[in-house]
Structures
1.
Amino acid sequence: MSRQASIDRQTAETQIKLKLDLDGTGKSDVKTGVGFLDHMLDLFAKHAVIDLKVRASGDLHVDQHHTVEDTGICLGQALRTALGDKKGIRRYGHFTLPMEETLVTVAVDFSGRYALAYHAPTPAAKIGDFDSELLEDFWQATAANALCNLHVLLHYGRNSHHIAEAVFKGAARAVRMAVESDPRMPGVPSTKGTLDS
């Protein structure tokens, strides 16, 4: 059964096309116009072992917010679509990831309900020309549209780039675990019999 999704989101602020294959090999082809986001999504695809293609154009003459947030929306929608009825998946995933002086834990539950607990502040307002506050906005948009619980916890860290990278890699590894096949539970991993809400 194919676990792929294609999202085409067109608004007055952004135009985004995103393709995702949960059973890929970690290939990425990402062009959003926001270099740091491209780098983070390349890392995400590699460590989640998914194939990801993104083409985005947005109102970057205003700022990066709409492009970053809307890309998160599309990623969340693609994850939700590709997972289908969620039969046979592990559902839960977690990973604690060291990135030099930084340590981050990310946990995810593809429960069919949205919740975000994001506790990973970055010391610097900018990472290159990227607005650091957009990191939380990206993950909020992703989790809300994937309909998952997402918890991100920075234990400690000094360098904002390392913190952001640890969050993306940790999230990738947690998602990888959660969407993997669980041979001991072929049905929906819930006593309710559904993970739609």
2.
Amino acid sequence: MSEACILTVAITGSLPRKRDNPAVPITVAEQIESTQAAVEAGASLVHVHVRNPQDESPSSDPEIFARVLEGLRAHCPGVIVQFSTGGRGRDPAERGAMLSLRPDMASLATGSVNFPTSVYANPPDFIEQLAATMRAEGIKPEIEVFDLAMLYTAVTLAERGLIAAPLHVQFVLGLKNALPARRETLLFLIEELRMLAPDATWTAAGVGRHQLAVNHLALELGGHCRTGLEDNIRFDASRLARSNAELTARVADLCGRYGRRPATPAEARDLLGLAPCG
């Protein structure tokens, strides 16, 4: 079990919007400020989507990603920056357009899955294209596992040389129509990962009301944690989360119960096999 726990903060995503929670950072300045506060609370990795400031819709504009990346590197030294290549609201041809900016990491869903009201489509040729681009740009993928087959696909891609080892996998739990947020499910996923890629690292993300329960499971079972307003606009059933920093601090406080502590950005880079900052 790793004592240090990498805390990922997913600051905005595609939803929610300001009308759902005023704490959601939309503009570049808001995203930088929100990330800085979350890093001070214990986060060492930030998962980045960007929005069109006019209507808050998801954007693939490399210029906006570049401004966020520049600001994060200036105001959050050492933090691991991970760009999302997720598909909600974005044309498939544009989803990897910002990878030329060479963030530290980028998300890579290795299969398609039913979302609650739509299909998150990731055809095999598209997955291979994104993986090859990340490999060429020196970007470490975070393998997004929404369903079991995605884990096996990722291992196959690594065997073919499209993804560099060691793998880093994020298990996404609690999304309707996909993997349930059950302890038994996560235990099985971890067992399979250890058998297929014993040197891999893993994070668990709980969606919506499952976020806190999955944080507990990840800490107990030796993994890393994801939190943030992207996954859960509510802190609990009765009130809205006030900030990404509040959600991050909640997980940081939990670490001690399991003999863990939040990893520093430098420790997180070492755990993930990333180059030191600077």
